[in-house]
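agent> Task received from the user: take the single chain below, predict its 3D structure, and emit structure tokens. No templates, no multimer pairing.
agent> Plan: (1) validate residues, (2) run structure prediction, (3) serialize to tokens, (4) report one or two observations.
agent> Step 1 OK, no nonstandard residues flagged.
tool_call: predict_structure(input=
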Amino acid sequence: EKLNVHGRPLVLHIIKPKMGMTPEETANQVYQTALGGADICKDDEMLSDLSNSPWEKRLEAVLKAIEKAERETGQKMLYMLSITDEVNRINEKARKAVAMGATGLLLAYSAGPSALRLLTEDPEVKAPVLLHVSHMVSQIPMISFPVFSKLCRLCGADMMLSPCIWTSIPMVSPEEAARNYQVMVAPMYHIKPTFPMPCAGVYPG
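)
tool_result: status=success, residues=205
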């Protein structure tokens, strides 16, 4: 609804390289993929706040690039800004980002389910939250992925990276991947679904 895209999957551009680019270089890459038709772009989960790319300057530059592309194509794009930080700084950063115009936020699972819940329950944070599974991967041999997904759904994740059969990093079996999607979107009392995001080396083919 935010993007007025119906009847097809959303296409997401992960900004690479994960570190090293200036806000202007990042914005130029986003501009190019917006012209190419990407619906969403996101910071790499490793990126948060670097001396050569402070998050405020990166947000401002990327939003300007997206606005420029929208004027040319008529299509909107969401930018998921990485706000992963020490737990006591996440919500403050999120509130400031939303006030600056952020259209989405990226939080790595390493911050913890409690940090995710506090972020999504914050009334001042009116932007969708993409939960990056990052450090979950080390737990795969011990905890079923659908359990992680259910916890993150309960904690308010709007979108969440999800293992799939087309990935270059096959984290789980095809059966577990399918079960995981079912857990994310099936009716669950009053709890909203979490948007699944097939990930890791997935290409248009």
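agent> Step 4: summary for the user.
Strands lie at 12-14, 40-42, 78-82, 104-108, 129-132, 159-162, 195-198.
agent> Done.
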